[in-house]
């Protein structure tokens, strides 16, 4: 087993799930290590994501931990043996790690949900819109860094394209659609782009109108990425110090409930398209 310098969010998630399984079994790291004929330091490294684990050892650990969820075990085994070096690797050392972790998360997601209140979701942004957003960053980005962030954001669309696109649903507040990011022409192009994508079978766009009453208790902007099994779902939220990846089962349950509540009060897709059409005509 080779020691890794920096674990990705996906590798850390595997490590976290193995630690959770051990905790649930009430075995100590020393006891788990003895079952594999290794030392407790190696178990700690595996559970910290700094050392990989083979599929054989992972399955042995799961058996010793009395985990009977074969779908979960198979999903973890896939994570342990995955050697994917995706398109996002070209940005490593050039962009914040959270950008790459989000791209990797999206690549493996079985579905994607977005809820946004102030901006159009990143996967639906046109180039000029994304550029205008990144241009407002403080401190100001050098031109090369700005161009790289815009290019990375546009490349993330790959999950919505191709022969097997990821099922995607976006709940967008009217405020995000009305705020003119980048000027009138950019806003018009952005709305047209959303309408174009909303016609795809795997894409659902719903609008949360201003006129909605009693809405404050269900506001929760989020990126929700479905895992191979529900336990491996992930929520990503923007925090004061960057993106926050949330994966505990109780919290995931809260965000699933919040998403369904927002979805229930949003306009249905057909009415949402009509709504966006009207907004575009007002520009």
What does this structure look like?
With 283 residues, the protein is α/β, with parallel strands linked by helices. The chain has helices at residues 9-25, 29-36, 40-48, 55-64, 70-81, 97-108, 127-135, 143-155, 174-178, 184-198, 249-265, 269-282; strands at 112-116, 168-173, 203-208, 222-225, 234-239, 242-246. The chain has a 6-stranded mixed sheet, sandwiched between helices. A hairpin with an 8-residue loop joins strand 4 and strand 5. Helix 2 packs across helix 3, helix 4 (55-64) runs antiparallel to helix 5 (70-81) and helix 7 packs across helix 8 (143-155). The chain is elongated and about 70 Å long.
Task: For this entry, give a set of tags.
283 residues; alpha/beta; 6-stranded mixed beta sheet; 50% helix; 11% strand; elongated
List the helices and strands and how they pair.
Layout (H helix, E strand, L loop, with lengths): L8 H17 L3 H8 L3 H9 L6 H10 L5 H12 L15 H12 L3 E5 L10 H9 L7 H13 L12 E6 H5 L5 H15 L4 E6 L13 E4 L8 E6 L2 E5 L2 H17 L3 H14 L1
Parallel strand pairs: 1-2, 2-3
Antiparallel strand pairs: 1-4, 4-5, 5-6
Query: Kindly, what is the distance between the CA atoms of the first and last residues, rounded to a whole number of angstroms?
Result: 59 Å
Topology as H/E string? Answer: HHHHHHEHHEHHEEEEHH
- Outline the biggest β-sheet: 6 strands, mixed
Instruction: Please report the total strand number as a whole number.
Output: 6
Class by helix and strand content?
alpha/beta
Give a nutshell description of this structure.
The chain is an alpha/beta fold and 283 residues long. The chain has helices spanning 9-25, 29-36, 40-48, 55-64, 70-81, 97-108, 127-135, 143-155, 174-178, 184-198, 249-265, 269-282; strands at 112-116, 168-173, 203-208, 222-225, 234-239, 242-246.
């Amino acid at each position: 087993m080779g020691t890794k310098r920096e674990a990705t969010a996906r590798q850390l998630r595997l490590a976290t799930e193995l630690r959770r399984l051990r905790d649930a079994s009430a075995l100590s790291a020393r006891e788990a290590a003895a079952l594999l004929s290794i030392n407790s330091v190696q178990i700690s490294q595996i559970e910290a994501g700094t050392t990989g684990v083979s599929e054989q050892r992972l399955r042995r650990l799961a058996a010793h931990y009395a985990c009977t969820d074969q779908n979960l075990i198979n999903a973890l085994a896939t994570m342990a043996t995955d050697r994917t070096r995706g398109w996002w690797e070209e940005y490593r050392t050039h962009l914040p790690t959270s950008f790459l972790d989000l791209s990797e998360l999206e690549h493996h997601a079985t579905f994607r949900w977005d809820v946004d209140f102030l901006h159009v979701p990143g996967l639906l942004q046109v180039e000029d819109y994304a550029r205008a957003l990144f241009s407002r960053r403080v401190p100001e980005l050098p031109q090369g860094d700005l161009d790289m962030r815009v290019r990375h954001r546009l490349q993330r669309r790959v999950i919505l394209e191709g022969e097997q696109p990821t099922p995607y649903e976006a709940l967008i507040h009217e405020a995000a659609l009305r705020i003119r990011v980048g000027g009138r022409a950019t806003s018009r192009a952005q709305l047209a782009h959303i309408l174009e994508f909303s016609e795809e079978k795997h894409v659902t766009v719903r609008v949360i109108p201003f006129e909605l009453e009693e809405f404050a208790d269900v506001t929760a902007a989020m990126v929700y990425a479905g895992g191979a099994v529900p336990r491996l779902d992930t929520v990503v939220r923007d925090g004061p110090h960057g993106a926050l990846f949330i994966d505990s089962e109780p919290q995931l349950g809260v965000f699933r409930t919040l998403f369904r509540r927002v979805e229930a009060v949003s306009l249905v897709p057909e009415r949402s398209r009509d709504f966006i059409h009207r907004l575009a005509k007002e520009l």
